[in-house]
Amino acid sequence: MCRSKRAKLSHDRSVSTKKQQQDRPASTKKQQSNDPFQSLPQDVLCLILSKLPLNEIVRTSTLSTKWRHTWTSCPNLIFDAATMCANSTTSSKEQRARVFIASVNAVLKQCGATAVEEFQIKFPFDNLLVDHLNNWVKFAVLSRAKNLAIELEPEDSRCCKHPFPFELFDKQSMSRLEAIRLSLVSLKARPNFSGFPNIKALDLRSVDVSSNDLQLVLSSCSNLERLSIAMCHPHDDIRVSLPRLQHLHVAHSCINKIHFISKNLRTFVYDGFMVPLDLSESLQLGHVEMNFPSLTLEHAITELPRAMPHAQNLNLSACMTLKVFCLPEGVTKFSHLKYLQLRLYFSGQDNLLSLASFLKAAPLLEE
């Protein structure tokens, strides 16, 4: 072959190669343009995912190549029966528990979240869960979870309570937690328990805890702002100082005496039998809601003002026995109360005028 023909052939190959190289990026761009999510920033994707339930988050992996693994770094891992067993047709409790366990483990196996905001387990208690709960809590600890919830639902009154795994936490993981919700769990603090120094919200429901352990846990929560204690029975006095506490809720719990030293307390909600109560140091107590199954007018007029003299608004519901009552001289009054709402249940109307005692007990009442 002559030199000119070889040169022409070489030139043609070079042109062909360049053309192929030019065509490839164009093809790639066209392929990318068909993906509407390709141009979205990562923080926008994470924001979108944070608004979806977990089962929908996992399904987004089929929407786009960019979304294929994005869901595995989802900051909110909320596992509940409605979400994880949505496709299950079985009515057997045991089978539903197996489906739930398998679904949670499958998600966590793929999940690469290293900065979890919220980790929640919510499911009816079943003995099958016992071997897995601590592994799930361990995942939350290793993922630096800020909000932790173990909300087990009782199947009957004899249901066992799962021991909270304090041993899985070190000082760093404890200091990262900002909110804890526990249900059907037993709290037994370890001797070297260092506390949750940065927790702001604590919700305990049907938790098996002694008064000593409860006071030990609470006294370590120096930054606690919200506390709810429901259906817990420490059967003893609770006396604790929580300087930052703003909202306190106590319901259907067997506590002999409640004494909270909380100068910043603003809201107090109580539901249960009348027990000795001391919130006298809560100088900013703005709103109080109380619901008693039974209460005497004398206790309402004399004990409640002594327990919370700085309360400004009071909503009181009770089954009350009315009888003529004369407010003693020198007794502590609601010296700051401006709003009073009564929902009283009683039989007979002979002593309705005795309710006027509330007017004497709250001299600054406006409404």
Automatic annotation (TrEMBL):
CDD domains under this entry? F-box_AtFBL13-like (cd22160)
The F-box domain sits at: 34-82
Residue spans of biased composition, Polar residues class: 17-37
Out of the domains of life, which is the source?
Eukaryota
One Pfam family this sequence matches: LRR_At1g61320_AtMIF1
User: Which portions of this protein are annotated as coiled-coil regions?
Assistant: none
User: What's the name of the protein?
Assistant: F-box domain-containing protein
Species of the source: Triticum urartu (Red wild einkorn)
Q: What is the lineage of its organism?
A: Eukaryota, Viridiplantae, Streptophyta, Embryophyta, Tracheophyta
